[in-house]
Design a protein that fits this description.
Layout lengths: L2 H17 L3 H19 L31 E2 L9 E4 L6 E4 L2 E4 L6 E4 L6 E9 L4 E8 L5 H4 L1 E6 L32 E8 L2 E6 L2 E7 L22 E5 L5 E10 L6
Antiparallel strand pairs: 1-13, 2-5, 3-4, 4-13, 5-12, 6-9, 6-13, 7-8, 7-12, 9-10, 10-11
Helix pairs in contact: 1-2
Length: 261
């Protein structure tokens, strides 16, 4: 089914439920429909469990050209969550189907990659259900609440809207993207995040939407009680479960030489 037809089906399902006087069920049933669409859109209905579905390595952003011998490495094998841990809540909230990590939005809190990193380029693809919300946590601590112990690149269904500090690709609550470049719900988005010392870039669907120097953020802004420049320069990466169905795939990590102090 074409994405437009899928979106209409979901919208009609929600309106029908509300019209019957059962609004408490509308979010649940709509989420189930959205999850089914994500599974289908990711090709999961055709997937054999013993196949590894990992796309080719990404083309790295121009910032990488100054370094020789960089090699993007897949950190998700397309078959299972080896190397990843569901932290808190429902351990079944994240699972693998059709070469993608699916989040059913049922309280998994976050999915953590089990190796700390410092200087890197993270490349991934994500697909959202309608109005879905998530995030990519960068350099957060192993324990604690990741949106507060590191920084977050926002994942949100904001296609066609004006950019804000809460738009897709924003450094959440701090740095807004220069343009809104996300794709509609149920389409794959391509994201790259550069974190090299204080240098940060966010690319979304082939466009650089953020370039920033964390050292310039020397006072608390937005949700943080400490300046962005004082957050750790190494830590864990992960994906947020914000109660919405979504999917991730083709996750590559390219480690960079240590940044100058």
């Amino acid at each position: 089914m074409a994405p437009g037809c899928i979106n209409c089906t979901l919208a009609l399902s929600r309106r029908n439920l509300l019209g019957k006087g059962v609004p408490a069920l509308s979010r649940f049933v709509t989420s189930l429909l959205a999850l089914a669409v994500l599974v289908s859109s990711a090709g999961a209905l055709l997937a054999a469990p013993d196949l590894t579905w990992v796309g080719p390595p990404p083309q790295l952003p121009p910032y990488a050209r100054q370094f020789a011998g960089l090699k993007p490495e897949p950190i998700f094998n397309g078959r299972n969550l080896d190397g990843w841990t569901v932290v808190g809540g429902n351990k079944n909230a994240f699972y693998v189907r059709g070469g993608a990590i699916l989040c059913n939005g049922r309280g998994g809190w976050w999915l953590r990659y089990e190796r700390p990193v410092a200087d890197f380029i993270l490349s991934l693809k994500y697909m959202l259900s309608r109005d879905a919300n998530s995030g990519v946590f960068i350099r957060c601590t192993r324990d604690g609440d990741p949106p507060w112990t590191g920084w977050e690149v926002q994942i949100l269904d904001t296609h066609g809207q004006q950019p804000t500090v809460h738009s897709a690709g924003a450094i959440y609550d701090i740095i807004k993207p220069r343009i809104e470049n996300s794709r509609p719900a149920f389409e794959w988005n391509e994201m790259q995040i550069v974190a090299h010392g204080a240098h940060v870039e966010v690319w979304l669907n082939g466009e650089q939407i953020i370039e920033a120097n964390l050292d310039e953020y020397d006072r608390p802004i937005g949700k943080f009680s400490v300046p962005l420049k004082e957050l750790p320069r190494s830590g864990y990466i992960g994906f947020q479960d914000h109660g919405c169905p979504l999917a991730f795939k083709d996750i590559y990590l390219t480690e960079l030489p240590p940044a100058a102090k």
